[in-house]
Specification:
Number of domains: 1
Strand content: under 5%
Structural class: mainly alpha
Distance between the termini: 81 Å
Largest sheet: none
Number of helices: 5
Radius of gyration: 34 Å
Shape: rod-shaped
Oligomer: single chain
Order of helices and strands: HHHHH
C-alpha cells in the first residue's frame, strides 16, 4: 500500500520483485551492494588515517614552535637581565644570539 503512494518506494519494490525471481540477478545485486559497502568503508578508513596523520603532524609542528617560542622568551629574559647589570648591547647580542634589531626593539619597550 505504501509503495503506491511513494514513487521511490514503488521503484524499489519493483526492483525487489525482479531480484527475487532471478537467482543470478540477486547474487549480482548482493555482490554489487557488498562492493559498495567495502568501498565506502575503505574510503572512511583512509580519511580517518589521513586525519590522524595530519593531527600528529600538527602536534609536532606545535611542539617545535612552542620550543622555539620558549627559547626566544628565555633569550629576551637573559637580555633584560644583562641590560639590568649594565652590559653593552654588543655583549648582549653575542651572548643571547638575538639580532641587533631584536635588541633595539627590546630597548624601546
Amino acid at each position: 500500500m505504501i509503495a503506491t503512494k511513494n514513487t521511490y518506494i514503488k521503484s524499489a519494490y519493483k526492483t525487489l520483485q525482479v531480484i527475487r525471481q532471478d537467482e543470478k540477478k540477486r547474487l549480482a545485486y548482493e555482490a554489487r551492494e557488498k562492493a559498495l559497502r567495502d568501498y565506502n568503508q575503505g574510503m572512511l578508513e583512509a580519511e580517518l588515517r589521513g586525519r590522524e596523520i595530519d593531527r600528529k603532524e600538527g602536534q609536532e609542528i606545535g611542539q617545535k614552535e612552542g620550543q622555539a617560542t620558549g627559547e626566544y622568551e628565555k633569550a629576551i629574559q637573559i637580555a633584560k637581565n644583562m641590560f639590568a647589570i649594565g652590559l653593552s648591547e654588543d655583549m648582549v647580542t653575542q651572548v643571547t644570539g638575538l639580532s641587533s634589531i631584536q635588541i633595539e626593539l627590546l630597548l624601546q619597550k
